[in-house]
Amino acid sequence: MTTSTRLKFAACMTAILLSTAGLWAQSKPPSSPSTRAGTNIITNNRKLFETWISEANDLVTVGSGFQAVDNPITINCPGPNSCTFAAEQNLQVNGSTSGNRWAICTEVDGNFMSEPSCPYLGLVSSDGTYIAGSFVETMHGLSPGQHTVQTFVYSDLGLNRSIYAIVYRVYGP
């Protein structure tokens, strides 16, 4: 395993651990879709059709609200049946303002995914130290054909977006 691969793996594992610790901040960002109350969806025996990995190791200052993390990607549901789409989002951020909530959200064809809706992952550190978070969203019933997907980071007051790795997957029957 190369040093770069080890660093990416460590960043992803850190993101998973820190997001688990940050579950106390479970409210959703403004303007994100609400989840269907009381719905428990279990999907199994699906065939993986397509996988895309979007990643970068840079530092970008972004403003408040929803800001693009990666470039739009075109995915394909081959049909004839509908597909299930999953976005596994891992992101590292820092900042200098206290009380700054943040979240990771993915759009499909310009609409935020809602299974489940994107929760706040906690507060951006105000002392400039990095924190990481991750979340997985799914979309069932994706129609056959091409779709555009893109992930966004949300913050109340802006932040510095750093290392990220996002895995997009399309599944079918």
Task: Give a structural overview.
With 173 residues, the protein is mainly beta. It has a single domain, classed as Sandwich (Jelly Rolls), CATH 2.60.120.40. The chain is 11% helix and 49% strand. It contains 1 helix and 11 strands. The strands form 2 sheets. Strands 3, 4, 6, 7, 8 and 10 form a 6-stranded antiparallel sheet that branches. Strands 1, 2, 5, 9 and 11 form a 5-stranded antiparallel sheet that branches. β6 and β7 form a beta hairpin. The longest helix is centred in the N-terminal third of the chain and has 19 residues. The relative contact order is 0.33. The N terminus is likely disordered.
Topology of this protein?
Elements: H1 3-21, E1 47-56, E2 60-62, E3 65-68, E4 73-77, E5 83-94, E6 101-108, E7 111-112, E8 120-123, E9 131-142, E10 145-155, E11 159-172
Antiparallel strand pairs: 1-11, 2-11, 3-10, 4-10, 5-9, 5-11, 6-7, 6-8, 6-10
